[in-house]
Amino acid sequence: MADNVKLYDTTLRDGAQTEGISFSVTDKVRIAQKLDELGVHYIEAGWPGANPKDIEVFKKLKKLRLKNSKITAFGSTKRPKIKAKDDVNLRSLIKAETKAITIFGKSWDLHVKDILRTSLEENLNMITESVAYLKSKNKEVIYDAEHFFDGFKSNPDYAIATLEAADNGGSDCLVLCDTNGGTLASDIYRITAEVKRIVKKRLGIHAHNDSELAVANSISAVQAGCEHVQGTINGFGERCGNANLVSIISILKLKLGINCVSNTQLKELTEASRFISEISNMRQMGNQPFVGASAFAHKAGVHVNAILKNPKSYEHMDPAATGNRRRLLISELSGKSTILRKAEEFNLQLQKDSPKAKKILKLVQELEHKGYQFESAEASFEILMRRSMKHFKSFFRLEGFRVIVEDDEDGNLVSEATIKVKVGGKKEHTAALGDGPVNALDNALRKALVEFYPSLDKMHLADFKVRVLDEKAGTAAKVRVLIQSQDEQDSWWTVGVSVNIIEASWLALVDGIEYKLMKDAKK
Fold first, then answer.
1. What ranges make up the beta strands (E) of 181-296?
2. What is the pLDDT of residues 258-315, one digit of tens each?
3. Angle 503-508-511 (CA atoms, 0-180°, nearest 5)?
4. 327 lies in a domain?
5. Whose CA is closest to 139, among 185, 170, 105?
6. How confident is the model at residue 474 (pLDDT cuts 50, 70, 90)?
7. Beta-sheet strand order (sheet of 491-498)
8. CA–CA separation, 514 vs 507, rounded Å?
9. What value does the CA radius of gyration of the chain take, rounded to a whole number of Å?
10. Can you tell me the distance from the alpha carbon of 476 to that of 468, in angstroms, rounded to the nearest whole number?
11. Is the distance from CB of 435 to CB of 500 less than 8 angstroms?
12. Same domain, yes or no, for 384 and 421?
């Protein structure tokens, strides 16, 4: 196994092929900068000449002063029966003016015959001549052997011959690709080890996740001798995605002791993963290993009790190593240990044998039975706990509210909320319009309170989720509303439950505003 592994990121090309992702030029530049900070060795920026966007991307990236990464252009070998210097694709790669270039060629005889529709010998010539041409222009050339593992299973001698063709052209690295993502980890290891015995050039791995084995296959390849690993952040990619470079970096560094990035860069992994998810407009999976919000979240009371005594009991690593954190979730499965730990987080004094701990736990269990869920609404739970312990200051009192939804003369639905609140001894009666009834309520409530609490002007509703709790009850079913609120420094979730969606929304809205005011009062 290699002591040194180079990381090759293809988020900007393979990742961009994810259904639902469409990077702008600015998006690609920002992601490249983040990958450079993370210590990725190669950043594949796209296919030059394929579209105007990628042409502009390479122009922008050329102006960046990257500290750790080489920008890489991607393309294919030349077309059959023309000279390499006359191939439009290869000329576009040169024009991108990158230090490194990656080209792919066919390793599977099926593709040569049925897709390229040329001879096996001509395909070998295409590979050698394309690599040699790029090397003549003083470029570092990485050769991606497309469909290598399928090709090896079909015709091992020919698959090896394609690698030797690239080697003869002067390729700096030969990358074995599991393009269809159907190879098992044991076969990846066996085939890679066999190739390693025959071909002496530096080897790499490029795995797809169609069998949910891309990370395992990449690690198996490294253990068999690969020194170069390709993947995407968060496993973005066409179909089921590419190998998740976030997990690969973590495993290489923490499990195999390979210093592919520094300890400091590793601690930025969680932030980088979430940053790129946000730019991609893709929701990050909570259960994503190493960096997901749930990766080190503990819910069962037995687990929490053990974690507080020794984190190794239910955690395979320190969450802080990748910039993540441990979370203890509040639910009906929680025990007193979770309640006590949460009290500690909230700077509340709560003794182990205190009746208040039992009271809070019982209240949580009762509320969750009614449909509440606090593991996703920690702001509501903190308010609940402070109220139970009589450590909560009431900032206002509701006198009443009304919501009207009407169809105006232009056929548009208009929502208006009227609210009466009391702050101290002063009453406030106000109304506001909104895009819908919840938005109108939110606007009216903050409008009524902003005179007393000006900081509410910097707060807004960021997300709104509704879950029907008993579908069989039809329109009489309870609903759970989760609301995410945000100010300039922070965001938080609150929850409300009712058979009336307006009331459930109101309960969550009020908790959100009271949490904001409570947070500001602590400053």
1. 203-207, 228-231
2. 999 999 999 999 999 988 988 887 878 889 999 998 898 887 767 877 887 888 898 9
3. 125
4. no
5. 170
6. low
7. 460-468, 479-486, 491-498
8. 11
9. 29
10. 10
11. no
12. no
Note whether 351 and 409 are same-domain residues: no
pLDDT in tens, 57-116: 999 999 999 999 999 999 999 999 899 999 999 999 999 999 999 999 999 999 999 998
- Residue 446: closest CA among 522, 378, 514, 520: 514
- Judgement on whether residues 153 and 208 belong to the same structural domain of the protein: yes
In-domain check, residue 31: yes
Q: Which of 238, 261, 284 is the last residue of a domain?
A: 261
Report which secondary-structure segment, H or E, holds 111. Answer: helix 109-111
Which range marks the domain in which residue 493 is found? 345-391+459-523
Whether residues 235 and 356 share a domain: the answer is no
Residue type, 180: N
Q: Assign residue 420 a region: left if phi > 0, alpha if psi is -120 to 50, beta otherwise?
A: beta
In whole angstroms, give the CA distance from residue 361 to residue 367: 10
Assess whether 522 and 411 both reside in one domain.
no
Looking at the fold, whether 378 and 356 belong to one and the same domain comes out as yes
* pLDDT tens for each residue of 103-132: 999 999 999 999 989 999 999 999 999 999
Same domain, 361 and 221: no
pTM over 0.85: no
User: What is the longest distance spanned by two Cα atoms in the chain?
Assistant: 91
Residues in the chain: 523
- Which of the four pLDDT bands, split at 50, 70 and 90, describes residue 391? confident
- Number of domains within the chain: 3
pLDDT, tens digit, 9 for 90 and up, residues 322-375: 999 887 766 555 566 677 777 877 888 877 777 888 788 788 878 877 888 787
Q: Are residues 354 and 404 in the same domain?
A: no
